[in-house]
């Protein structure tokens, strides 16, 4: 891929896409998903373990948030919340990057995260970081697959008195939920769309599958692009 801009996606998204591909976080081939579908691409946020890659993803989350400021629906929040485990480093990295990019507004932005198992000694509880009570919370995580982890995070935050105002993920695969009868030819909504409807909150992403395909055009392998387009045609959500 070229160093930055793409005609289809803004430069910060193209930079993030390039970092994800070069760093081996976004891979092309044949991968089995949680849903058992065989996908021609896979995004593993657990592979953002190098400082330059962490910086790339934190910058992209931060810029996605900052971009909403000039939109009709700016994100306004007090705390970035990262669901354990992978969300922890993503939310804390994003807080650090926001403070660097927009110090006046975000110089003292807070973050917090949950423990997977409640701690029964010391300070106890299952939330670490900024107290959530009465605060507006933006959840930062890697991907939505079924939406289960996001629903659990929303429940935990609400139990602590926090107000979830949105979810930000790195990738929206734009794919439909599996049909209950297993017939994948039927139109079905996406997990992201269902969360938007159920909780009435925005769910934003740095990249979508459309962005990946657009960003690869003229740069990636023709064969990969064709397989991604076929996968999109087969599994695209109805919403
Ligand atoms: O259920 P969904 O909302 O669609 O999300 C799927 C989540 O599952 C995975 O995390 P997991 O809960 O397994 O925790 P981990 O970060 O410890 O891997 C993955 O990283 C997603 O965040
Ligand atoms: O659906 C999944 O299981 C899945 C897809 C993907 O791209 N990345 C991920 O971590 N999980």
UniProtKB/TrEMBL annotation:
Q: Its catalytic activity?
A: orotidine 5'-phosphate + diphosphate = orotate + 5-phospho-alpha-D-ribose 1-diphosphate
Q: Which Pfam families match?
A: Pribosyltran (PF00156)
**EC number assigned by the record:** 2.4.2.10
Q: Which Gene3D superfamilies does the record cross-reference, listed alphabetically?
A: 3.40.50.2020
- List the Gene Ontology MF annotations in alphabetical order: orotate phosphoribosyltransferase activity
Q: Does the keyword Transferase apply?
A: yes
Which EC class, in a word? transferase
Its cellular-component GO annotations read:
cytoplasm
Q: In which pathway does it act?
A: Pyrimidine metabolism; UMP biosynthesis via de novo pathway; UMP from orotate: step 1/2
In this chain the Phosphoribosyltransferase domain maps to 60-185
Highest taxon of source: Eukaryota
Q: Which keywords does UniProt give here?
A: Glycosyltransferase, Pyrimidine biosynthesis, Transferase
Tell me which Gene Ontology terms the entry assigns under biological process: 'de novo' pyrimidine nucleobase biosynthetic process; 'de novo' UMP biosynthetic process; pyrimidine ribonucleoside biosynthetic process
Record carries keyword Transmembrane: no
Question: What family classification does the UniProt entry report for this protein?
Answer: Belongs to the purine/pyrimidine phosphoribosyltransferase family. PyrE subfamily.
Briefly state the protein's biological role: Catalyzes the transfer of a ribosyl phosphate group from 5-phosphoribose 1-diphosphate to orotate, leading to the formation of orotidine monophosphate (OMP).
The subunit structure is: Homodimer.
> Which NCBIfam families does this UniProt record tie to the protein?
pyrE
Entry protein name: Orotate phosphoribosyltransferase
Task: State the organism named in the record.
Answer: Amorphotheca resinae ATCC 22711
């Amino acid at each position: 891929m070229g160093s930055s801009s793409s005609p289809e996606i803004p430069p910060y998204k193209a930079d993030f896409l390039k970092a994800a591909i070069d760093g081996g976080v976004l891979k092309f081939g044949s991968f089995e998903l949680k849903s058992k579908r065989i996908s021609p691409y896979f995004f593993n946020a657990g592979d953002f373990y190098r400082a330059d890659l962490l910086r790339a993803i934190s910058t992209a989350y931060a810029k996605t948030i900052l971009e909403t400021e000039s939109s009709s629906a700016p994100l306004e929040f007090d705390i970035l919340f990262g669901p354990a485990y992978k969300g922890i480093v993503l939310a804390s990295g994003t807080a650090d990057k926001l403070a660097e990019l927009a110090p006046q507004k975000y110089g003292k932005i807070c973050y917090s995260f949950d423990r997977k198992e409640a701690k029964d000694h010391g300070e106890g509880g299952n939330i670490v970081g900024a107290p959530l009570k009465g605060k507006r919370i933006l959840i930062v995580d890697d991907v939505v697959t079924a939406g289960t982890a996001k629903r659990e995070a929303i429940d935990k935050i609400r139990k602590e008195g926090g107000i979830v105002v949105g979810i930000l993920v790195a990738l929206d695969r734009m794919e439909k939920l599996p049909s209950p009868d297993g017939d994948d030819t039927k139109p079905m909504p996406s997990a992201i769309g269902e969360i938007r409807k159920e909780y009435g909150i925005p769910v934003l992403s740095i990249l979508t599958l459309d962005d990946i395909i657009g960003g690869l055009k003229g740069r990636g392998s023709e064969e990969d692009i064709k397989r991604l387009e076929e996968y999109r045609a087969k599994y695209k959500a109805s919403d």
